[in-house]
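Input (structure):
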């Protein structure tokens, strides 16, 4: 009986998968395009290295093929099917002509060059990742088309023979109906980092239909060139008809997408869940619909407090939210939006909007105001359009509608709970950052920060401050005898007693381990510190009940006082002085306090209380 074995991938393969998993969308697209480039190079260097044109009719000039590829690529229509955007052109026409009329290697060069030139003409810039991906895909596309075309074999001297048409049809089915759209959708999926089989299937079907239609049009063009070249102008009406049909289909699909997008936006804004919980979903839909890299929603609360900011994050429905005051640039943008609903521009051309874009590391963008009954409630920003152009009239109208829907939701208080939840979360994060989780009093970070603040205010308050370091005497013995759980309860009891000894201006903190700190702010006289230190020692010497047992613990206290701003040291130096005084109290018998005297070589003992019992059962 055989047993099933599990074969683990080699270490190099596992590492490669891990590295690919950490790549972003453009980087994944580059990796996939490089793979396509290798496949395409293998095609042209191995089976197609010596391929030649099958003589079917007279060759056409090279410039005619290049011009045809360029013009056919310029005559394009962008069609959005669900979330997938496809660019449909008439490039099958020059492919049909090239397979019959020019050398295959020339066809490859002219096709790639014509498509790239058309892309640069449309975009008015070079987009390296996109152009590299398109070039490698075209190399594979033409390579497969030539390979299949020559494998089936047209009839020499008769491009309109049945076998010749079959060869061309087979080339278009394999290259244009399988290889090209499949590779295109795989690359798109990798770049976007998500896979929706339904959307990909619809986009694939639409691409195949367009390829079939354009290939048929290519056969018609070939027929005219082979029989009556002077009738080439007869191609103009069917080309216009095909383009018109594609434009109409694209516009119909765009209207359907807009309606679906508005329905989805309305459902999000009026769902039982708060806007803040679905802000990421809302903004991700906006970035997809308008074709921008990022979207940001800035909301001004009713109390005119710090603005609440939501950002798009890919597929995460729970968009991260932050709070901060409006910047100067944002205030200027809101002032401009008093007279207009939408602003579009770039960093270099618009002063106020340009500053707001620069704050977000964006080159171009559009901002729309969120109007309320009593004034602007915030704004919605669309940053870095994918196509490098401003939003069109229809898109601006749609954006205004979306802004109105969000404004109504804000007027109805849909964001109130989100802001409240953010405030609670922010307070909880602050508590965790500045308060000791065991004793629930301030930690070392907050203590140092507060000491620094008190020192900086000495000149205006003109009242002495004091810092105390409190170290528990005999705490190690308690831990060893009763265990760490009892030790933690002792620390909590000590913290509770210290809180009672401080005023609102003062601060008690756990510095670390069994060390505590005390800040006395705004004392009437420097001698007040000695009074408080004495009271602390007396308070901590009282027995602490622990079930049936009573535990007594002592404390050694070091005190450092600053009377005037002229004598104020750095916070670290003041705390060092209190620490030195505390250690001197330890050396001199514990259960006492020592006040640091900066004029003496060593701290001076201010008071030595009676010796106290350290641990009791």
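Output (sequence):
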């Amino acid at each position: 009986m055989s047993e099933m074995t599990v074969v683990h991938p080699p270490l190099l393969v596992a590492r490669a998968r891990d590295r690919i998993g950490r790549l972003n969308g453009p980087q994944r697209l580059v990796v996939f395009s490089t793979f396509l480039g290798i496949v395409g190079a293998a095609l042209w260097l191995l089976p197609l290295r010596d391929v030649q044109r099958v003589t079917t009719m007279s060759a056409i000039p090279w410039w005619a093929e290049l011009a045809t590829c360029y013009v056919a690529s310029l005559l394009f229509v962008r069609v959005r099917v669900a979330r997938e955007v496809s660019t449909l052109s008439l490039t099958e026409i020059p492919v049909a002509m090239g397979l019959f009329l020019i050398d295959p290697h020339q066809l490859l060069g002219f096709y790639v060059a014509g498509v790239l030139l058309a892309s640069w003409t449309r975009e008015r810039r070079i987009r390296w990742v996109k152009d590299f991906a398109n070039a490698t895909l075209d190399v594979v596309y033409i390579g497969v088309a030539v390979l299949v075309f020559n494998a089936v074999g047209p009839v020499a001297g008769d491009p309109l023979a049945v076998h010749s048409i079959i060869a061309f049809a087979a080339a278009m089915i394999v290259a244009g109906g399988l290889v090209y759209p499949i590779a295109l959708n795989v690359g798109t999926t990798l770049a976007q980092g998500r896979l929706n089989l339904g959307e990909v299937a619809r986009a694939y079907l639409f691409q195949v239909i367009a390829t079939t239609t354009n290939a048929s049009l290519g056969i018609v063009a070939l027929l005219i060139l082979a029989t009556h070249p002077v009738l080439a102008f007869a191609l103009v009406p069917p080309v216009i008809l095909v383009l018109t049909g594609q434009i109409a289909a694209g516009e119909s699909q765009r209207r359907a997408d807009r309606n679906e997008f508005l329905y989805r936006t309305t459902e999000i804004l009026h769902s039982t869940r708060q806007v803040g919980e679905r802000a990421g979903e809302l903004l991700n839909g906006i970035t997809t619909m308008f074709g921008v890299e990022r979207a940001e929603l800035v909301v001004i609360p009713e109390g005119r407090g710090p603005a609440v900011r939501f950002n798009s994050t890919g597929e995460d429905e729970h968009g991260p939210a932050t709070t901060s005051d409006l910047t100067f640039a944002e205030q200027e943008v809101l002032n401009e939006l008093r007279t207009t609903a939408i602003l579009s521009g770039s960093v270099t051309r618009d002063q106020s909007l340009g500053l707001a874009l620069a704050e977000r590391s964006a080159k171009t963008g559009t901002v729309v105001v969120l109007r309320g009954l009593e004034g602007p409630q915030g704004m919605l920003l669309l940053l870095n359009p994918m196509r490098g152009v401003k939003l069109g009239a229809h898109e601006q109208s749609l954006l205004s509608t979306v802004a109105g829907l969000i404004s109504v939701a804000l007027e109805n208080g849909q964001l109130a709970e989100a802001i409240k939840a953010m405030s609670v979360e922010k307070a909880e994060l602050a508590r965790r950052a500045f308060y000791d989780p065991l004793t629930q009093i301030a930690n070392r970070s907050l203590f140092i920060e507060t000491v620094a603040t008190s020192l900086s205010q000495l000149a205006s308050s003109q009242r002495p401050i004091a810092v105390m370091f409190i170290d528990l005497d005999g705490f190690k013995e308690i831990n060893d005898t009763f265990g760490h759980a009892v030790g933690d309860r002792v620390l909590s009891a000590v913290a509770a007693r210290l809180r009672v000894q401080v005023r609102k201006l003062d601060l008690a903190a756990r510095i670390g381990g069994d060390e505590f700190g005390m800040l006395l702010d705004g004392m009437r006289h420097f001698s007040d510190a000695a009074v408080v230190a004495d009271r602390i020692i007396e308070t901590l010497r009282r027995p602490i009940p622990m079930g049936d047992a009573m535990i007594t613990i002592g404390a050694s206290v070091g005190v450092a006082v600053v009377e005037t701003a002229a004598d104020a040291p750095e916070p670290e130096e003041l705390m060092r002085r209190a620490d030195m005084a505390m250690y001197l109290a330890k050396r001199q018998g514990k259960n006492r306090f020592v006040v640091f005297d900066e004029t003496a070589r060593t701290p001076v003992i201010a008071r030595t209380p009676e010796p106290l019992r350290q641990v009791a059962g």
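Notes: The chain has three domains: 32-227, 270-420, 435-607. Residues 1-14, 605-617 have pLDDT under 50 and may be disordered.
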